Amino acid sequence: MNSDKLFDIIFSMKFTIKQMNKSANAAEKASDKEKLLVKKALEKGNPEAARIYAQNAIRKRNDSLNYLRLASRIDAAVSRIQTAESMRAVTASMKGSVRGMAKVMESMDPMKIAEVMDAFEKQTGTLDVNLGTMDAAFEGTQAGTVPVGEVDSLMEQIAAENNLDISSKMSGVPLHSQLRPAVVTNKAEEEDDETRDIMERLGRLRGGAV
Predict the structure, then answer these.
(1) Of the candidates 112, 126, 93, which has an alpha carbon nearest to the alpha carbon of residue 1?
(2) Mind listing the GO biological process terms from this record (predicted)?
């Protein structure tokens, strides 16, 4: 592999980094929009809708983080390749993994890019086992369910930021009953008054019949 070919691959990788960062920003903005929908749903006393929006917000947030992590891995790989090239230390194994990068980078498929990065990092001995496989991470955010604890935590955060008291949610009381306490209380009082009125009428009727 000559220097010109290597330069083209590095250029492609740097372009991919920019695209990953753009995707991360877009996912973050989408997450913010979903959070706004959570707020509106909570204000309307609709916890079911709020929960769905919260799940979407968390998925988008995870997507954003995954894009940023992937961009960071590509950037680190670029640095390693450039360093190896400057030191004339590009090994055969590195050349083999780099050779297939250009086409994969052009695909802009996060899972395919993650796979080629795994291969590169394994061959260069720099794979971070704590990261796991990024393709699995992306699949998880797209197809998996969001943990209930994360959803509840986000809903509580948004409620707190907007002065909505949902503390009873944690004690098993339905969220909507906490969001509209005045309405529920008034309705209960009306029912009690109506019950008392009926009992008084029954008492008068019985008294008249005796």
Answers:
(1) 93
(2) vacuolar transport
